[in-house]
User: Fold this.
Amino acid sequence: MNDAAYINLENVPDGSTPGSTISLAQVNTENTSCLSTDSCLSTEALTNSFNIVNQRFFQGGITGAIIWQVPKGMVSINKGSPCYSLNGSTEELTFEQATLAIKQGQADKALALLTPFADKGHPDSELLVCHILKRQHGEWQGYAKAYNDHFITEMMAPAACYYPDTQTIAIHPHLHRRGAPMFVLRYLIYHECCHQIIDSSESEPHTPLFMEYEEKAPFREKALSWLSKEGFPTL
Ligand SMILES: [Zn+2]
Assistant:
């Protein structure tokens, strides 16, 4: 096994374009020699990688197909500015005093207490300062923007996904184009295989039980770091 091998996408053989499906049963699981060469690319290399991971980590118990295809599901990624958390009981007490001051109509007192927290990026303080300043016809826009900036999210296609209804693993063709190292591909396959053996819901795909298995993935940290450098959402 050559874990530094690259999947080269130039010279993709006819009939094995990204998106095509190959039955795993058709593939000789013994044939792994092409993994590190340029002569056996795309779907064959993908299927061989699947077979290797399946045999080595799942005793061949995973069934289904693997294809190059942009995963259909999108994931929401927080790209917002970091939030400041109140630091210790003194700051928490100050914040409580400020909210009490608001209830008692002492807006100026509340503003004086909250502004330092808002300036550090504490979302609740930014919101309250924003409301107080608005009522006083002050400069509230900066605080509103700072608050909103914490919660900027972007919808992104993941690097891979598993469709339980068709027992199919889809691997993003971008990995193909970027010459993803073999360890990245095998990590993704391992992750998606875990989805076949461990039940999860759409709202919580990565349950604690799932993560117990997933964290044993080969070259996990290295693969996640490569994926994140390539701009893919990671766990
Ligand atoms: Zn997953």
User: Anything to note?
Assistant: The first helix runs from residue 42 to 58. The pocket of zinc ion is lined by residues 191, 195, 205-206 (CB under 6 Å).
